[in-house]
Amino acid sequence: MFKIKNILLPTDLSPTSLSAADYAIELANQYKAKIHLLHVLEKTPPILAIRSLDLSQEKILKSFEEEGKKSLENAIKKIKKGKSEDIEIEPVLKKGNDYDEIVKYSKDHKIDLIVIATHGRTGLLHTLLGSVAEKVIRYAKCPVLVITPHKPRK
Predict the structure, then answer these.
(1) Tens digit of pLDDT for each residue in 23-79?
(2) Contact 119/152 with Cβ under 8 angstroms?
(3) CA dihedral 87, 34, 101, 136 (to 10 degrees)
(4) Domain 6-147 top-level CATH class
(5) Mean pLDDT over each residue of the chain, to the nearest integer
(6) N-to-C CA span, the chain
């Protein structure tokens, strides 16, 4: 029988990506699993931020990292609101290419299931930007549950 002990919930912290949280919570409750809430920061900050704020790259990266940690904690509170409080949700912040870091984390931490929302882009936007969910499905070595967007959480 398939046992789920670790669920990876990648997020860009948008309401759309957090819409997958309801499914992850339901599965975590059912299987008594741990949720790993993963947010991936870019390796390098946008050049405009460096120039416009007149700060060093290190200071901007540190600022992005601190903001990312705060945002993850807020996301956890939002996810748990009105749900089972005994679910373990571990916030994880990584730097790099989003789908690469998601796939790498899933391998390194013995993730049994990835629950990811898709932004639902089609046409030119999908062609230009690609789909993180699509790349995760292609390269992940564990099952991936893709959630289509619904109305944003409030």
Answers:
(1) 999 999 999 999 999 999 987 665 555 555 556 667 777 888 899 899 999 999 999
(2) no
(3) -100
(4) alpha beta
(5) 83
(6) 37
Spatial strand order of the sheet with 89-95 comes to 89-95, 34-41, 6-10, 113-117, 144-147
Residues 6+ apart with CB under 8 A from 6: 33, 34, 36, 109, 110, 111, 112, 113
Non-local (6+) Cβ contacts of 148 within 8 A are 117, 118, 120
CA-nearest of 117, 148, 138, 95 to 13 is 117
pLDDT above 90 for 119: no
Residue with tokens 């984390």: 105
Spell out the domain ranges in the chain.
6-147
CA distance 108 to 137: 17
- pTM score of the predicted model: 0.84
Pairing of strands 6-10, 113-117: parallel
Distances (CA, A) of 29 to 5, 36, 88, 149: 11, 14, 10, 22
